[in-house]
Amino acid sequence: MSTATLARTTMSPLPPDVRLMNATAAALAAVAAILVAAMAAMWLARQPFFAIRSISVDGDVARNSVSTIRANAAPKLAGNFMTMDLRAVQRAFESVPWVRLAVVRRVWPNRLRVQLEEHRPVAIWSGESGAEKLVNSFGEVFEANVGDVEDDALPTLAGPEGSAARILAMLGRVEAGLAPLGAHVEALTLSGRGSWQATLDSGAVVELGRGSDDDVLARAARFVATLDQVTSRYHRPLEYADLRHSDGYAVRLKGVSTTTDADKNAKKKKGG
Questions:
Q1: 60 CB contacts (<8 Å, ≥6 apart)?
Q2: Which of 33, 101, 153, 183 has the fewest CB atoms found within 10 Å of its own CB?
Q3: Within a 10 A sphere around the Cβ of 28, how many other Cβ atoms?
Q4: Higher pLDDT, 271 or 115
Q5: What is the C-alpha radius of gyration for the chain, rounded to an integer number of angstroms?
């Protein structure tokens, strides 16, 4: 056999069945390697070396001691350093009363670090269920013991579910608008039909009515600007005011029943 003929015979491709067997063997070897690696990783993950040895808690812990927080969250934790679900850990810590936000990180090889942010109550929430809850500075409603709040002067907000943030924002604007009356807003309510009502710390109730926030505040501004004309006449404090009229308002003073309409009277004078 010539050299050229031998070279052509040596370089000829393998038969299809041989190539298939080789590819199958390579695939099986790869799968076996992956399975061995996975089993090794699972075995390693279960070793006591990775059991959580400590959980450090930092941040806002004024409402709860660190030991109380750990005691509340620990029973809800499962797994070790390698297998623990950090989202589940986060939910466990955020379920502790007064905890608004928990940021959880792993610290090699067997520790967890938790950074907490507490709720800062700014109002009491009286929802449709009737149960009192609290509203934090972000307008979020949360459950906690209202009796634990040191500030006895928190205003009360009430309205449909999901409206706490809007009512809290409106509270600041209404408070500023009614400030010339020398009273603070003790409660602000938004009805299901979108009508606002403010209760002052003097006991007076002001029906602000419906409309955009700017419309409501504009009516309040006109009311505040002219109310003194009514109260100075009778020298009695305000008990109730209804600003839902299109051309004025009605008031009731303590001990005096009246439906004085300052704006309407002014229009009549101008008309002769």
A1: 116, 117, 118
A2: 153
A3: 10
A4: 115
A5: 36
Cβ atoms of 82 and 111 closer than 8 Å: no
Q: What is the distance in angstroms between the CA of the first residue and the CA of the last residue of the chain?
A: 133
Q: How confident is the prediction for the chain on average, in pLDDT?
A: 84
Chain length of the chain: 272
φ/ψ bin of 230: left (φ > 0), alpha (ψ from -120 to 50), beta (otherwise) = alpha
* CATH for 121-270, options being 3.40.50.1370, 3.20.110.20, 3.40.190.10, 3.40.50.11690: 3.40.50.11690
Specify whether the CB–CB gap between 219 and 209 falls below 8 A: yes
155 or 14, greater pLDDT: 155
Q: Report which DSSP code applies to 48.
A: G
**Residue ranges per structural domain of the chain:** 13-45, 48-118, 121-270
Positive or negative torsion for Cα 115, 121, 125, 130: positive
Q: Is 7 exposed, middle or buried (0-12, 13-18, 19+ CB in 10 A)?
A: exposed
Tell me, what amino acid is at 257? S
pTM score, two decimals?
Answer: 0.74
What distance in Å separates the CA atoms of residue 105 and residue 21, rounded to the nearest whole number? 48
CB 64 within 8 A of CB 99: yes
Could you read off the pLDDT of 81-125 as tens digits, one per residue? 888 899 999 999 999 999 999 999 999 888 999 999 999 999 999
Distance CA 93, CA 113 (A): 12
Q: Does domain 48-118 correspond to CATH entry 3.10.20.310?
A: yes
Place of tokens 């269920």: 129
- Alpha-carbon gap, residue 57 to 68, rounded angstroms: 11
